[in-house]
Each structure stands twice: as structure tokens, then as C-alpha cells.
Amino acid sequence: MPPAWRGGAAFAAATSPAAATAAAPACLGAREPAAFAGAPGSGSSAEPPPPRPAGSAPAAPSPARPAPSPLPAPADPAPHRPPAPSQLHRFNKMAGSVAKRDALKIEDGHLNNSLGSPVQADVYFPRLIVPFCGHIKGGMRPGKKILVMGMVDLNPESFDISLTCGESEDPPADVAIELKAVFTDKQFLRNACVSGEWGEEQSSIPYFPFIPDQPFRVEILCEHPRFRVFVDGHQLFDFYHRIETLSAIDTIKINGDLRLTKLG
User: Fold this and answer.
1) What are 77-104's pLDDT values in tens digits?
2) Closest CA to 250 of 160, 122, 150
3) E strand segments, 211-257
4) How many Cβ atoms are within 10 Å of 173's Cβ, its own excluded?
5) Is 33 a domain residue?
6) Contact 51/28 with Cβ under 8 angstroms?
7) Fewer beta carbons under 10 A from the terminal one: N or C of the chain?
8) Whole-angstrom Cα distance, residue 89 to residue 83?
9) From residue 18, how far is each of 8, 12, 109 by CA, in Å?
10) Which structural domain, as residue segments, surrounds residue 192?
């Protein structure tokens, strides 16, 4: 057979439908005709998907969503453990230091003033024991206030609070003001003693402020011409100075049927 004829026969064979069908899987990587949906004889009316271009990589499958991780189980509450002995030792040591410091403050007379600010008190004393005698640092001056807080006894007769010029008993020290509460006739008296001579006693008050077995708060405010006296926050009366040198008034004395809780 001539070469040209053999080439023509080969071309015809290559272009025949059977040859195209057989070569399609190898050239295009296509499926066999029966695998397409809607191919003749398949019984399906759906159109076949468009062929994938030659040489293209197959589409990557969409990544699967990871399953949600389970929530951690709630941890069991930590059991209560008693403090270690070393911690108890440190705590007891700290508590003892605080108590000792407070006791020193009381014994040295370092208390808060009547306004509550943490400053060194003007009244110095060893202990709040009646009868009581304490020193007023620097003496009295205008603007200085003396605070006395305590509890009246259950069955009281009287008690007195005095501001004096020193502690002398013989000769007796001058008394700038003496406040005396008398429960038998409900009087709150005040007077002064200069050079051994007592002056005129004053007794006028709007009401008697003290009650047996109840707390009280007495404040003595020093002003230029007078002492102004408050009980439980209420002004009761004024007492004009009979001693001119206020700085000489440097001692407070308390006696009678009461228990002291605070001085300042």
C-alpha cells in the first residue's frame, strides 16, 4: 500500500467516532459516556457538568470544619486548708505587736483628739483610773478643747471634772473651772478657786444631761474670754475666765462615780 494511502487510512481511523471515544479518557481524563448524568440511555434529564479543561488540577475539596472542643469540666473547689504553723506564728506575732502598740499609746497618753484626727493628745496620763490626774501639754489656750468620755455608775451620787494650775495640794493649786454633777438634785455646778478662795457658784442649766449607767461626752472649749461647755454635742453653758494666764492651766483632775473611757 502506498505510504500516502496508509497515512490517509490512519487519519480516517483516528477521526472516527469510535476512536474519539476510546481516546477521550486518555487525552482529557474524561469519564466514560455512561458515567455522565443525562447520557443517552441513562434515563436522567439533568445536563452533564461542563468538562474540566485539559491539564487543570482537580478542585481541592473544601476543608472540613473542626468539631468544637468540649468545655473543660469545672474544677473541684479547693478544700479549706488550715494555715500552716509558720503562718499562725506570724499572725500571732503581728497581733501581739498591734496590741502592745495600742497599750503603749494608752499608757503614754497618745490618743486621738476630740475631732478624731490621729494626732498626739494634749492630755498625758498613765491610766484611765478614777480618781484621775493628768497633765495638759502646754496648758490651755484659745481654741484648745478638752474631751472627757466615760460611763456614769449605776447608782451615782456625784462626780467632778476640774482644770487646775498644777497638782499642788498644800497650798492648793488654783482651779480655773470645776464642773460638778450632782445626781441627788440633778444639778451641774461650776466654780473657780483663786489663791485659796472659791468664787460664786453657778448652777443654771437648761436640763440635767447625765443618766445613771449611761455613757457621756463632755467637751470643754477654751475661748478668749470664757470656757464653753458641751455635753453630748449640746452646748449647756459658758463660764468666764477667773484666771488670766491660760497657759498656767495645765492639769485635769476627775473624781467621783464614773468610769473613764477616753480623754483627749
Assistant:
1) 555 555 555 554 554 555 444 434 433 3
2) 122
3) 215-222, 226-231, 234-240, 251-256
4) 20
5) no
6) yes
7) N
8) 10
9) 17, 11, 122
10) 118-263
61 alpha-carbon distance from chain centroid: 61
Q: Are 232 and 226 in contact (CB under 8 A)?
A: no
d(CA 185, CA 138): 37
202 lies in a domain? yes
- Supply angle C-alpha 213, 252, 189, rounded to 5: 60
Contact 173, 165 (CB under 8 A): yes
pLDDT for residue 79: 54
Beta carbons within 8 Å of 52's beta carbon, 6+ residues apart: 29, 58
In the structure grid, which three cell numbers stand for residue 57, read together? 488540577
Tally of domains in the chain: 1
Do residues 159 and 132 make contact, with C-beta atoms less than 8 angstroms apart?
no
State the pLDDT confidence band at 62, using cuts at 50, 70 and 90: low
Q: Strand, coil or helix: what is 253?
A: strand
The Cα 195–Cα 171 span in angstroms is 9
Residue type, 163: L
* C-alpha torsion 34→35→40→43, nearest 10: 120
Report the CATH number that the domain containing residue 140 is assigned in CATH. 2.60.120.200
For the chain, how many residues are written? 264
Is 207 contained in some domain?
yes
Residue 175, in any domain of the structure: yes
Distances (CA, A) of 13 to 4, 105, 224: 14, 122, 138
24, 25, 154, 190, 257 from 54: Cα distances, Å: 11, 11, 115, 122, 118
